[in-house]
Write a structure and sequence with these properties.
- By secondary structure, this protein is an alpha/beta fold.
- It folds into two domains: 220 residues, Periplasmic binding protein-like II (D-Maltodextrin-Binding Protein, domain 2, 3-Layer(aba) Sandwich); 95 residues, D-Maltodextrin-Binding Protein, domain 2 (3-Layer(aba) Sandwich).
- Helix content is 39%, strand content 16%.
- The strands form two sheets. Strands 2-1-3-10-4 form a five-stranded mixed β-sheet, with helices on both faces. Strands 7-6-8-5-9 form a five-stranded mixed β-sheet.
- The chain is globular, with a radius of gyration of 20 Å.
Length: 338
């Protein structure tokens, strides 16, 4: 009860701060004649989720914003947030749950925009397994990537379905989600994306079944977000605002012409499967944009962030309510701020 009361107070204070912010009009223009360097680190290898980044690069949106953007690919998905916190990169793509975990460890990080505005993480299985509902997981083996909140997802989902956790075997398969399903090592995976691994399986004729997290008991959240160090917001607000607005233009361009976006992504990353990327971009397009009227690209729903944070607290994934309070802000989005 004390934990719930504490977070409620913190959230209320955050809401007051947000309410005090007015709207402003932004102009996508540099503050100086020379381009300013900006380093962006991806969450993992380039893929369809990043299509707007590469489209913005291809169409010189960043250049027109006075930015010289360099995209880096991490060798370890655990490093992007650490490098942002250390000031080694200006911003990084990450995941809402990872932002909460990092803040719980004391890292001064804030999400300033949502790239993918709904969970992609899903329970995926081959059609031959006939797993269409969480109840069908009883007596089955489920593979995960060994991430703490994935275990909590499974626990929450099974509890809602009335299936004891002891009746499902959980196996850590790391990044080998698709191979683990194809080999029969597991009956399903929790961690595969509905817009990626599920499409891979469909293109192989495996008729995958997909169960989405936010439809079976897990609070909805932003799968991919843009994260910066808190002090950068105060010190380089104009720089960040121009970057976010240019990035939003890249995703808006992809919405108008998905094929051009895929072409830019594949040209910059020739090793990608163009057919898979095209199908993934098409499937993900709605998730790149907010659904509320008047909400700019990158919008983050504070109530959803708070609800997801409360779920993490309840499931002992984080222990500090401050990890949730002000974990995200919309102040740098187009038309927002003071």
């Amino acid at each position: 009860m004390k934990r719930r009361l504490t977070i409620a107070v913190v959230i209320a204070l955050a809401a007051v701060g947000l309410a005090a912010c007015g709207e402003k009009k932004d102009v996508l223009a540099p503050s100086a004649s020379t381009s300013q360097p900006f380093t962006l680190m991806l969450d993992w290898v380039p893929n369809a989720d990043h299509v707007g980044i590469y489209q913005a690069l291809a169409e010189d949106d960043f250049t027109r914003a006075g930015l010289d953007v360099h995209v880096q690919v991490p060798t370890d998905p655990a490093t992007p947030l650490q490098l942002v916190a250390a000031g080694k990169v200006d911003a990084a793509i990450s995941y809402e749950p990872e932002v909460m975990l990092a803040r719980n460890r004391g890292l001064p990080l804030v999400s300033i925009a949502a790239l993918v505005q709904e969970p992609l993480t899903s329970i995926v299985s081959l059609g031959s397994k006939h797993i269409r509902t969480p109840a069908a997981l009883r007596g089955r083996t489920v593979g995960t990537a060994g991430i703490s909140y994935q275990h909590a997802y499974l626990d929450t989902i099974l509890s809602n379905a009335g299936v004891p956790l002891s009746k499902v075997k959980e196996v850590n398969v790391g990044a080998d989600l698709v191979p683990a399903m194809l080999s029969g090592r597991v009956d399903a995976t929790l961690g595969a994306y509905w817009n990626y691994e599920a499409i891979q399986l469909a293109q192989r004729g495996k008729r995958p079944n997909v169960i989405r997290m936010d439809q079976v008991g897990v609070p909805t959240y932003d799968e991919l977000v843009l994260v910066v160090k808190r002090s950068t917001i105060a010190d380089k607000a104009d720089l960040l605002r121009r970057f976010v607005e240019a990035l939003g233009r890249g995703y808006a361009s992809v919405r108008k012409d998905p094929q051009a976006g895929v072409a830019a992504l594949v040209k910059a990353n020739p090793g990608l499967d163009a057919k898979l990327q095209a199908a993934s971009v098409q499937a993900t397009l709605p998730a790149f944009f907010p659904t509320g009227a008047g909400q700019p690209w990158g919008w983050q729903d504070q109530a959803r962030w708070n609800a997801y944070g409360q779920w993490m607290l309840t499931n002992h994934l984080i222990t500090d309510p401050q990890a949730v309070a002000d974990a995200s802000t919309n102040e740098l989005l187009a038309g927002q701020g003071v």
